[in-house]
Amino acid sequence: MINPLEKLEEDDPSPFEEDDPSPFETDSDDDESEELQEAFSDMSSETLLAFVSALLFAHVGLLATGVGLLLVIFTGQWLFGGAVAVGGIVALTLTGWIYRWYDKTS
């Protein structure tokens, strides 16, 4: 019987030599992590708070609006789905308000 993988096993060395690190391994002293730490240390606490708040409200708003509309459309749960969708719209409105507030103050 012929082994179809026999030729591959002979010719194909390991894709990673022992000297070469795996592409999935990361160094703890990366330049990118140092740059990120510098950026966060240079950023004011007001900017960071506005960014994180807007980010969380946007994610929650998009999720709640989508799930609420899906509940209304596909399951006919008008009361619960409508409340979730309205809550999502409120969260998206707060995201816009946070953006405008920060834009005025900076």
From TrEMBL:
Ranges of residues in domain DUF7322: 41-101
Record flagged with keyword Glycoprotein: no
A Pfam family this chain is assigned to: DUF7322
Acidic residues bias: start-end ranges: 8-37
Originating species: Natronococcus occultus SP4
Protein name according to UniProt: DUF7322 domain-containing protein
Keywords: Membrane, Transmembrane, Transmembrane helix
TM segment ranges: 48-72, 78-99
Annotated segments matching region Disordered: 1-38
